């Protein structure tokens, strides 16, 4: 399947935003939620991880070297053991979830104490731009944009990560305020 022209550019931009946090956990076990049909982020992060696992309903079967994928629909559970990962990434996925709070609880469950979650998600400001780029210009996959269930702002993300053992929450807008960068850590074991 051929990607629309703008998708690789947006993916590289998101990778640059999250790579500094991933590097804080050298040779980590990393879970990429919503890895996509070619698990491209996992391949780009391979030099920085001991083990990289991707999960997505459209994930291809990959079991090569340090990387593997699991094909699963992201509803309200993740098919992994407790405290399996040091870092969880979710780039441009949260907006597609029907049960985002349940997946946040699941991310906390599969994350080791002291581990980090990092995500990007479009803000409400992005909606008309993404629709124009997709539906009018064909630069972004239209089915992906039609599947957006919610656009998030800073307050939405902090509310989503309230409770549990989350600490050190960080938020920044990027891409002219049209995208959110959000990171949080699970409290270290006492």
CATH-derived architecture: 3-Layer(aba) Sandwich
Number of helices: 6
Placed side by side, the strands forming the largest sheet appear as 3-4-2-1-5-6-8-7
- Could you spell the SSE succession in H and E letters? HEHEEEEHEHHHEE
Number of domains: 1
Averaged pLDDT: 92
Please report the distance between the alpha carbons of the first and last residues.
Answer: 48 Å
Low-pLDDT windows of residues: none
Count of β-strands = 8
The geometry reads as globular
Query: What does the radius of gyration come to?
Result: 16 Å
Name of the level-1 CATH class: Alpha Beta
Q: How helical, in percent, are the residues?
A: 25-40%
Structural class: alpha/beta
| CATH topology (fold) name | Rossmann fold
Main beta-sheet annotation:
8 strands, mixed
The name of the CATH superfamily reads Vaccinia Virus protein VP39
Beta-strand percentage range: 25-35%
Walk me through the structure.
The chain is of the alpha/beta class and 190 residues long. It has one domain (6-186): Rossmann fold, CATH 3.40.50. It is 30% helix and 30% strand. The chain has helices spanning 6-23, 40-45, 100-110, 127-136, 142-146, 154-160, and strands at residues 28-33, 49-56, 63-64, 67-71, 85-91, 111-122, 166-174, 179-186. It has an eight-stranded mixed beta sheet, sandwiched between helices. The longest helix has 18 residues, at 6-23. The protein is globular and about 50 Å long. It starts with 5 loop residues before the first helix and ends with a strand.
């Amino acid at each position: 399947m051929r990607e629309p022209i703008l998708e690789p550019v947006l993916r590289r931009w998101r990778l640059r935003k999250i790579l500094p946090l991933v590097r804080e956990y050298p040779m980590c076990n990393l879970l990429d939620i919503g890895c996509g049909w070619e698990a491209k982020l996992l391949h780009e992060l391979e030099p920085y991880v001991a083990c990289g696992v991707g999960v997505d309903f459209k994930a291809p079967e990959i079991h090569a070297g340090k990387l593997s994928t699991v094909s699963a629909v992201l509803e309200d559970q993740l098919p992994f053991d407790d405290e399996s990962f040091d870092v969880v990434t979710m780039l441009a996925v949260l907006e597609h979830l029907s049960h985002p709070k349940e997946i946040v609880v699941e991310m906390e469950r599969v994350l080791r104490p002291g581990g980090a979650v990092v995500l990007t998600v479009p803000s409400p400001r992005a909606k008309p731009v993404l629709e124009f780029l997709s539906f009018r210009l064909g630069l972004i996959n239209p089915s992906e944009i039609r599947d957006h269930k919610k656009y998030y702002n800073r307050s939405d993300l902090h509310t989503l990560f309230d409770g549990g053992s989350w600490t050190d929450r960080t938020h920044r807008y990027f891409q002219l305020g049209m995208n959110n960068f959000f990171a949080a850590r699970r409290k270290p074991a006492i």
